[in-house]
Amino acid sequence: MNLSELSLAQSARIVAVGGDGALRQHLLDMGVIPGVRVTLVKHAPMGDPIEVRIHGYELTMRKADAAKITIDTDLKRSAPEEDPDEKAYVANTQEIPHPGLGEGGRYHEEQSALLPSKPQGAAPGSPVHLALVGNQNCGKTTLFNTLTGSNQHVGNFPGVTVERKDGTVKGHPEVTITDLPGIYSLSPYTNEEVVSRRFVLEQKPDAIINIIDTTCIERSLYLTMQLMELGRPMVLALNFIDELESQGGAVRVNELEHLLGIPVVPIRAVDGEGVDELIDHVLHVARYQEGPARQDFCPSSGIRSAVHRSLHAIMHLVEDHAERAGIPLRFAANKLIEGDTLTRDALDLSQNERETVEHLLAQMEEERGLDRQAAMADMRYAFILNVTARTVVHPKESREHRRSHRIDNILTGRWTALPAFIGIMALVFWFTFNSVGAWFQELFEEGIDASTAWIDDLLSSWDIAPTVHSLVTDGILAGVGSVLSFLPVIVCLFFCLSMLEDSGYMARIAFVMDRPLRRLGLSGRSIVPLLMGFGCSVPSIMASRTLPSERDRKMTILLTPFMSCTAKIPIYAFFVAAFFPGNGAWVMTSMYLIGILTGILVAIVLKHTAFRGEAVPFVMELPNYRMPVARNVGHLLWDKAKDFLERAFTVIFMASIVIWVFQTFDFRLDTVTSNHDSMLAQIAAPVAVLFEPLGLGDWRIVTALICGFLAKESVVSTLGGLFTPETLQATLTATTCYTLMVFCLLYTPCVAAIATVRRELGSRWALIIVITQCLVAWLVAWLVSTML
Amino acid sequence: MNIQSWIVLLAVVALFVAVFRFYMKKQRRNKGCGGCSCGCNDCEHCGL
Questions:
Q1: For residues A312 and A364, what is the distance between their CA atoms, to the nearest angstrom?
Q2: A2, A140, A740, A783: least buried by Cβ within 10 Å?
Q3: What ipTM was estimated for this complex?
């Protein structure tokens, strides 16, 4: 029987994990190993993927991947044998006094006496570099913000941090800390895992803070063990311990510290509880270079002794290579056993040595009865389960988990998930465009109009020359003002997206939407960058880094610009006010739908042409629902508002002046009496021919579109400068206006988004996106113009 | 043009130059090294 055949709420024990490559290694790293109990929690609305409970947390995977995992529903028969050697290896730890690791005083003196040759680290006051490492969604960025006082974006979704961020620890100006993307192991499964691993291995930080989610401590300690194998000084921070304790759970911190051989500090990252103690400990281990007291996790006797012997044999064999490559020896041997190609290449073993390693591993596999990757994961989890059995009192079920389960009955229920998704998205758009956002926008517009009128009167009273007067009012104020009024709408949309992400619902959307997206050649994880695309293309393109395959990343990045970003809202609102009063909601909704439909069509074409093959496997942890933290949401909104204002007062301001100059003067720099004689008209007229078939062959429209390349809001400011309401009504009809809106929706992303694509995929892809989008936009606009 | 017009014009030009310089500086800062797409944003990583 395999995992995909398990009935709802039925439990079984894993017998074997099939498949191969990175996905299998990832599943093993996530704790899907032989002997572990697994329970089916639910199916996604369309029957696939499935959600299982393992090691006290929820994991989602596709049925096709689950079918490769063999299970036994007879839990007694398949229970793993108890190994007395294993139990003895993790010694009895009753009544352990405080070990005092990572502290001064007598414990430090004792340890220094034991390891006299240990080199001293940075002296007090000299620079110290720390790395913040942990699983996805365990509170790393929250801790980073608490430590540094910065406002990095955090979310309740695995993989919010996609690139490292540096900051200085408050009260310790000499201490720099780097927040790394969340990882589950040091296997190179996704791009961010490679980034984190490379940083820890190559940059060699003075110490590592390993933050873990205590509510799923078994899975979290898997990464801890791999970090300990690196031999770097480190401290374990137990986050969310309050959630565990509130339900009667507990962690015996002294015993855990004693068994792991590294300092362990309970913290609450969100309000800084325990953080001072954490910093004291990490600075101590960094300055004295106190590495983990334990690195050997397998006993030399018992059923796992085969792993122990092969590991040590390989360590002896590759010692000189590891030293030359600058890779910690134990880590190198472990990764060699797991078949990690990056480590194997770096070690540069001879043919003879490679064959010896292979023989050792074949012997180990025969003795252990498991393949090498499974044997390693099994060895680590056996140690972890022994440690946690002695140090962790698990609560029956946390309040957060119970609450999440109840909410999920509706939000991911078989018949309710899709209506709930559509309803929530409708609510988001109603909140943004029809109620709160629209109300604030009106308020803003009134303020801007009043300010513009006041400045206009002031200039008139000073008797300013007409050309300069026009520069200020028609150029700057009309341009910047027309864009500025949309600030409330944009802030409202980001508020909604932030609430979806911070609450944990975004991860559920990925789970629910995996199957429909797979038909388009994408995985459920792609839904997050695509949804973020409704806010701004730049962060959504960067968010695609969490996708573990290059094919999915490229495809998602290509499709993201089809999602209508907030910068296009001013364009729609401008035309709606002029041509579709009273039907604004329908016209706006149709824009979003056209964008989504075009994206779907392009995805289908790409799936059958440039991106043949299967979407990346969908293996993701579903976090508990959490109440969004007001401070985090506030920071995000402030960042977005600041970013928008900065654009309005930089790009839009400069573009408005340049456009004004080009439309006011001719090539002899004489003031023109009619716009048709201006430089702008002369430049844009030849390009306008291309837009004749769309009914948009007016040079002013072409000028606005060209300006939109800088920033989409420029389309509105340019049109505002070139047209009066009367001339606009005379130039466009409702049909041509709608065609123009469709073209604006789909044509090339702004320069900031293009620069991000270039950074992510290179110049070639950036150019491909610009050309493809323009062609698609022209084609769809032409179709719309002929159909209407 | 009267003196007030010249003052307003000069103020606009000065503002334009200041905004342009700020914008270019910010662009350079945002760009990073751009040498690779690993996301490290570390110019030394790929030697640029």
A1: 12
A2: A783
A3: 0.74
